Amino acid sequence: MATAPYNYSYIFKYIIIGDMGVGKSCLLHQFTEKKFMADCPHTIGVEFGTRIIEVSGQKIKLQIWDTAGQERFRAVTRSYYRGAAGALMVYDITRRSTYNHLSSWLTDARNLTNPNTVIILIGNKADLEAQRDVTYEEAKQFAEENGGFLLRLNENVEDAFLEAAKKIYQNIQDGSLDLNAAESGVQHKPSAPQGGRLTSEPQPQREGCGC
What we know:
- It is built from six helices and seven strands.
- With about 210 residues, it is an alpha/beta fold.
- Its EC number is 3.6.5.2.
């Protein structure tokens, strides 16, 4: 029996990183399932989600890995940085400690991914404006001082995922991203069955699902 054709041309691998409790898994569910979740249990290990989007007329499947924020899981979750085309780095605008730890998350992202990995900074829980502990201006300055990556608030979750994909696709078009490189985080016109992995990596631990 002939294999059914794929309905996408590319696979982009994303990772979501940041401290425990910042709402990473809520963002994942909001984007992949298009439903708002005010609270999620903490992730144990990693969680996984997918969604097909369109960029410049091309169907792209996003494979998104939500990593646990607890320090005791860092050794495990660092293995998922490998081969990521996009990294969404999340902090909680009501908890300054999560903002203060961004430098550590950024260091991991830059040391463990390829130089062309697109990084988006997301200030989550923007609906709790009265409890804000980190100003937008502070976060914007952090982004500008550390490479000028994009800053989005959680009401623009859709925008954050799409902006990363647009930038990755642009990198493909201008030749700055080598699709033949094992660590590119991009797969073009996959020949393996849908659900095949971008790179060889450990199976996610599915005991939990939150942020």
